Amino acid sequence: MRFVRSLLAGLAMLGVGALPAAAETEIVVHYPMPGFFKDVMEKISTEYVRTHPDVKITFANPSATYEEGLQLMLRQAGSPEMPDVSFIGLNRLRVLAERGIGVDLAPFTAKEDMGAQGFSPRLLSLAQFGGKQMGLAFATSNPIFYYNADLVKKAGGDPENPPKSWDEVFQLSAKIAALGDGTIGMSYRWQGDDWMFSALLFGHGGTMLTADEKKVAFGGPEGLGALKLIDRMVKEGKMPAMTADAQLQAFYAGKVGMMFWTTGGLRGTINGVGGKFDLRTTKMPVIDALKGRLPTGGNAAVMFTTDPKKQAAVYDFIKFAAGPFGSSVVVPGTGYVPNNDLAPKDDRYLGKFYQENPLFRAGLSQMDIMIPWYSFPGNNGVKVTNTIVDNLARLVEQKVTPEQARDDMVAEVGKLLPR
Predict the structure, then answer these.
(1) CA-to-CA distance for 246 and 354, rounded, in angstroms?
(2) Share of the chain above pLDDT 70, in %
(3) d(CA 278, CA 255)
(4) Fold adopted by 25-141+296-372
(5) What percent of the chain has pLDDT above 90?
(6) Phi, psi (5° rounding) for residue 204?
(7) Beta bridge partners of 302
(8) How far apart are the first and last CA of the chain?
(9) Within a 13 Å sphere around the CA of 158, how many CA atoms are in the beta-carbon half?
(10) Higher model confidence: residue 83 or residue 296?
């Protein structure tokens, strides 16, 4: 003991700390989809801790999907295992709001000029439900049009002027499919959830439910129009019934001419293609130039800690992650569009990035028509989504007509709505 005391005293005289100071605040962070976000989260947390040495970031085990992340939060609610912050899918924030889980950030944001920090009312609205600011949007995306310029040119198309309407898409897709050797004209990512269906529905100017949310609204011409487009993808565009992963792998291999998917998968697609062909991106085809909109995919950072001493630190971390620096990590690392208005304007963040990386511009150019990913009311949101996907599968497999798929979807979803 004398030796230890003497050593400590000697170090003190030399101005050297014997032991590093313990972090004053530990923030436990949970996030989904590590394939998309692991590297992103590590870079953001490293920079935050570097500039906030009194904070320690600890990661909980990530969840494979947004849905699994939500279910985990619902199970852990109020327990010691609950993380301080989690990144929740935008279409599942409503579940938390309706069950009173998660801290309303409105009292925090009301004390600041959020617009001056790049958080416009539109961006704030992406994570608002029931009069609450459930979080801050962290990663936001919209659907874009990927294409293999080599196949487009081989089929007689002009890679410099890709299709701007679905009619043009189907015509070119048929020509690409006619090249033979297992070549596929197009793929549309309808599987997994209702997001890409909503892209066609919103593109027609339609909505999922009526304004009072008591009845299904996609039974009208907009919903039928969306289903007819999917039917035409199969009949005219020669799109085969494939799993989402099979579609993606075929595109990577240079066997698919055009792919319609989230801009959030852009970095993974660039890596997957790896120079095997000339990859290009552009906007989704316009359906209704005036009323047409696109759904906003992605997630928001939600605060769960109820410890007043910790909440200030957690809110500060959430703002940092969702702010300009966070965007400067998320966008290049994934392909998601900026969720902060300052990031694309400042050369310290993304100002030069879009000039030097044209593949990322498609998603950015569509931000003005992005609206929230619709979240169904009540406890059957997941069942509603599965019902929509199941009927889309029947349509793609040509087991039903668009009208039959529409009628079945309306009837089945209607039974699942709150009464």
Answers:
(1) 30
(2) 95
(3) 13
(4) D-Maltodextrin-Binding Protein; domain 2 (3.40.190)
(5) 85
(6) -85, -5
(7) 86
(8) 72
(9) 5
(10) 83
pLDDT band at 36 (very low <50, low <70, confident <90, very high): confident
Radius of gyration of the chain (CA): 24
What pLDDT shows up at residue 67?
A: 85
CA nearest 200: which of 263, 262, 293? 293
Structure tokens at 175: 């020509």
pLDDT of residue 22: 54
Superfamily of domain 143-295+376-416: Periplasmic binding protein-like II (3.40.190.10)
CA pair distance 286, 164, nearest whole angstrom: 7
What pLDDT is attached to residue 192?
A: 85
Rounded CA separation 176/184 (Å): 7
Q: Residues 6 or more apart from 366 whose CB is under 8 A from it?
A: 142, 144, 283, 284, 294, 337
Query: Can you tell me the mean pLDDT for 307-328?
Result: 96
Delimit the domains of the chain by residue range: 25-141+296-372, 143-295+376-416
Q: What is the pLDDT of residues 163-214, one digit of tens each?
A: 999 999 999 999 999 999 999 999 999 998 899 999 999 999 999 999 999 9
Asked if the domains 25-141+296-372 and 143-295+376-416 are classified in one and the same CATH topology, the answer is yes
Task: Detail the DSSP E strand segments found in 65-110.
Answer: 85-89
Q: Which whole-number Å values give the CA distances from 154 to 165, 180, 186, 281, in the listed order? A: 20, 12, 15, 18
Calculate the dihedral angle through the C-alpha atoms of 241, 245, 250, 253, rounding to the nearest 10 degrees.
Answer: 180
